[in-house]
Amino acid sequence: MLDNSIYSEFADVSVQDVPALISRMRKAEPHQRINYFEIAKDVGVDAIPLLAELVHDSDWEIRHHAVHAIGQLLEEHRAPPDALIPFTADTHDSVRHLSSLYLARLNSSVSIAVPILLGDLRECRNSKDNSDYDEECTRIEIVFALGHVAPAMKEVIEEVTKSLDDPSLNVRLAAAESLSKFGQSAVDSTPHLRSLLRADYDDPPELTDDASRKAWTWKVYQLKSAAVEALFKIGKECHDDVLADILRDQNALCFAHHRALSILSTLPYSDQTRQVISVFAAESKDHVALELSRSALLRDSW
């Protein structure tokens, strides 16, 4: 959280204030450093060259903060990402990793960023503890970033496809969404995507209440919906019956219904699915779902 006392000291910050911000940041306690970077970001793209000079700082955490600030500015303003490239050669793996993530998401310097990310993904995948939360988040962010690489390299498609078998449903979801962006070039992934639709997703034994079971089911429906969307975008396969089954589940969270209807509005479907949508709309009291149902019913049937 931003420290208001620090922020008030640098009200109406300009690029001329950035050197003073950096000087104060170096003297601050580690937990306060983020405040100064947040203020520097208010300057906009003009702060990037000054932040990029921190590539030579002796403290890897400062370099890590600098990459994060630069990356966010680049994503917001779509500025040239040259300032990130030197950080990919950093001596600390966290700095190399973060700079590569931003470059991949910006689809820039992928010849540098992609090998780093693929190496990190394989290392996480070979970890002895696949349930480690931090490593799960790392796998998700890598697969998500790789989905922005275009045109997608064969090695990227293969590694993202392998992530469809990840122990984490969240990683599998990120993989399906990334493959969807690759389009026809990801045709070899279609058998793996179909397997997501056929798989059994039994409730984990630790789920002991209705709320946690509904959350789990929502996660499963997210994954299936993403697989349906990917299969259509990659090879024009239409698995509308999977989405119809989600609509039939009256106990599903509204988000699952919304997602299913949103995808149905983008693809053709059978008369049976049209009937399911019509019945759902007639029984639903969810205004968002009703609007999405109308949009889906405007699509031509098979």
UniProtKB/TrEMBL annotation:
GO molecular function: oxidoreductase activity
InterPro entries recorded: ARM-like, ARM-type_fold, PBS_lyase_HEAT
Domain of life: Bacteria
Gene3D superfamilies to which the protein is assigned, alphabetical: Leucine-rich Repeat Variant
Listed SUPFAM superfamilies: ARM repeat (SSF48371)
Pfam families registered for this protein in UniProt: HEAT_2 (PF13646)
Alphabetical list of PANTHER family matching this protein: DEOXYHYPUSINE HYDROXYLASE (PTHR12697:SF5), PBS LYASE HEAT-LIKE PROTEIN (PTHR12697)
Name by which UniProt lists this protein: HEAT repeat domain-containing protein
Species per Swiss-Prot/TrEMBL record: Rhodopirellula sallentina SM41
